[in-house]
Specification:
Radius of gyration: 16 Å
Distance between the termini: 52 Å
Number of domains: 1
Strand order of the largest sheet: 3-2-1-4
Helix content: 10-25%
Strand content: 25-35%
């Protein structure tokens, strides 16, 4: 894959953010994330770059409701789950949820 140019890279990052926001909304609205969705973030390794985009979503009690995006260098020799070749993945979703026992 050719390395995206700066404008293409910015467009790619913007689309990846929109995709993460859509995925979060879908999981929340379908009940996949319970009402206490206390932790949720999406990390995506950008193809052709050593960059990792992470979009983090606030807990329900946060006054700031906007997701936060960060872009950092991705070290291919790190212990990050996305370095696992056997997974053949470029995105990981990390979610903390809580389900209450029935009868509560």
């Amino acid at each position: 894959m050719a390395k995206p140019q700066p404008d293409e890279l910015n467009a790619y990052i913007d689309q990846a953010k929109r995709d993460a926001i859509f995925a979060y909304g879908f999981l929340r609205e379908t009940g996949t994330l319970t009402a206490s969705h206390i932790g949720f973030n999406v990390s995506h390794k950008i193809p052709g770059h050593n960059k990792l985009l992470t979009v983090s979503f606030p807990p329900p009690w946060s006054r700031d409701r906007e997701p936060k995006a960060s872009l950092v260098e991705f070290a291919p020799d790190s212990e990050h789950i996305l370095t696992e070749e056997r997974l053949d993945a470029d995105t990981v979703i990390h979610a903390h949820t809580h389900s209450w026992p029935r009868g509560r």
